[in-house]
């Protein structure tokens, strides 16, 4: 077994696709409308689904926002250098909500970016 995807409900699909592709460097892997269910799915990720876990963006037609809630944590993205990644993401218009530095109660260097719906995306340095 393997993790295939994490699903996020989004209020504006094009806005989210732009964030995950133009700011986070992912690819739009596929997009499909489901008219009978009045929703659209878009899958984004750093590689094809056969070999990579991806993010499934779900847009329910006419629903423009959601409560992120206190239970949701984050999606984590591996980067070569967290500090450099934050600079690059800021330069591309991304919102860093937690600057790079050692994690709470630990030493792993992390940072958090906020996606357009308020979902945190964690940046973690590649394991040495
Ligand atoms: C290792 C890396 O993948 C993490 O996600 S650790 C991030 C760290 N998590 C916690 O502190 C968990 C306990 C916390 N009370 C919670 O429920 O979130 C984290 O979120 N650190 C925040 C920070 O600013 O370091
Ligand atoms: Ni994490």
Automatic annotation (TrEMBL):
One of its GO terms (molecular function) is lactoylglutathione lyase activity. Zn(2+) binds at residues 56, 74, 122. Pathway: Secondary metabolite metabolism; methylglyoxal degradation; (R)-lactate from methylglyoxal: step 1/2. One of its GO terms (biological process) is methylglyoxal catabolic process to D-lactate via S-lactoyl-glutathione. GO terms for cellular component: cytoplasm. Pfam families: Glyoxalase (PF00903). It is an enzyme of class 4 (lyase). Binds 1 zinc ion per subunit. In the homodimer, two zinc ions are bound between subunits. Keywords: Lyase, Metal-binding, Nickel, Zinc. SUPFAM superfamilies: Glyoxalase/Bleomycin resistance protein/Dihydroxybiphenyl dioxygenase. InterPro entries: Glyas_Bleomycin-R_OHBP_Dase, Glyas_Fos-R_dOase_dom, Glyoxalase_1, Glyoxalase_1_CS, VOC_core. Its EC number is 4.4.1.5. The active site is at 122 (proton donor/acceptor). Residues 2-126 form the VOC domain. Gene3D superfamilies: 2,3-Dihydroxybiphenyl 1,2-Dioxygenase, domain 1. It catalyses: (R)-S-lactoylglutathione = methylglyoxal + glutathione. Its cofactor is Ni(2+); Zn(2+). Belongs to the glyoxalase I family. This is lactoylglutathione lyase.
